[in-house]
Amino acid sequence: MEFHHISVLLHECIEGLAIKPDGIYVDGTAGGAGHSREIAKRLTTGRLFALDRDPDAVEIASDRLSAYPCAQVIHANFADLKQVLENLHLQQVDGVLLDLGVSSHQLDVAERGFSYHADAPLDMRMSQEGYSARDLVNTCEETELARILFEYGEEKFSRRIAAAIVKERQQHPIETTGQLSEIIRNAVPAKSRREKNPSRRSFQAIRIAVNSELDNLSKALDDVFDCLKPGGRFAVITFHSLEDRMVKQKFKSMAQGCTCPPEFPVCVCGNKPKIKLITRKPIEAGEEELAANPRSRSAKLRVAEKL
After folding, report:
1. Residue stretches of the chain with pLDDT short of 50
2. Pairing of the two strands 300-306 and 275-277
3. Which end of the chain is more exposed for a tag (fewer CB within 10 A), N or C?
4. Which residues contact 109 (CB under 8 A, 6 or more apart)?
5. What 3 state SS string does the chain have?
């Protein structure tokens, strides 16, 4: 199986994790194993556990990491990290990496139904099982569909698009990405049709909903620091503002110490920072990486260390 994926901010991630040769690390989004392989190269007596919910990624990562005895690939969702570590009889690790978003493989293989650039069965399931994009657009109530498009895609024409989808599905089921893209295109004002592609925001929103991406990230942000040893690091690459906002706010709240009013002579709240921010501002791709991989344009890396 061909699995093309260029790892984003690769050098910056490895540097941010400050890998120890005897450490235990988790790559929660193995994908094509680009980040995983660089972590494994730096381990001697340490261990790497590479997780992915996509069976295609698990197959490819297993092959690409087969040369590294320290690495083990596990078919699992990063939101279930605590349970995965429990199954491995581990309590805490030295570092966790999450590279969020859709892999190049998922986008480029039309049959996966993620892309609006090709007409293919409407799917979008990262896990390749369960509730699909086809199920969502054909069964979701109009008000809920509009909410998904507005909240997850920041689509200002969400109500118009939702109404158009419901009207179309009353005539016949919406089966393909091409059908959906055409419905969206016809629903938005003519001026908006001249954009790069008016389907982009709606496809993002539906994908996020189908894969429970924000719910999984929220759970991971609550759990990862419990799974880190003191001094352990958590690196997260986000690809849209909703993800980055969640990570930024969580890191900020955990890095905050005393919350007493400034006029108090001494601290009475007892709050202490739980993490140290390694990156005060997100790291973004440089010109050389942008030229080699345009999909890195929206990537933002944030790193924090457990105190």
Report:
1. none
2. antiparallel
3. N
4. none
5. CCCCCCCCCHHHHHHHHCCCCCCEEEECCCCCCHHHHHHHHCCCCCEEEEEECCHHHHHHHHHHCCCCCCEEEEECCHHHHHHHHHHCCCCCEEEEEEECCCCHHHHHCHHHCCCCCCCCECCCCCCCCCCCHHHHHHHCCHHHHHHHHHHHHCCCCHHHHHHHHHHHHHHCCCCEHHHHHHHHHHHCCHHHHHCCCCCHHHHHHHHHHHCCHHHHHHHHHHHHHHHEEEEEEEEEEECCHHHHHHHHHHHHHHHCCCCCCCCCCCCCCCCCCCEEECCCCCECCCHHHHHHCHHHCCCEEEEEEEC
Instruction: Give the rounded distance of the alpha carbon of 88 from its chain centre.
Output: 24
Phi, psi angles (nearest 5°) of residue 7: -70, 130
Amino acid at 175: E
d(CA 50, CA 35): 10
For residue 1, how many other CB atoms are within 10 A of its CB?
A: 8
Residue 269, Cα to own-chain centre: how many angstroms?
35
**Euclidean distance between CA atoms 221 and 264, whole angstroms:** 32
Q: What is the pLDDT of residue 1?
A: 54
Please give the pLDDT value at position 5.
Answer: 62
Strand order across the beta sheet in which 93-99 lies: 71-75, 47-52, 24-27, 93-99, 228-238, 300-306, 275-277
Instruction: Please give the structure tokens belonging to residue 15.
Output: 């540097």
Contacts of 150 (CB under 8 A, 6+ apart): 156, 158, 159, 205
Tokens 């419905």, residue? 183
Distance CA 137, CA 133 (A): 6
Backbone angles phi, psi at 175, to 5 degrees: -105, -25
Q: Count of alpha carbons within 13 Å of 229, Cβ hemisphere only?
A: 14
pLDDT in tens, 89-106: 999 999 999 999 787 778
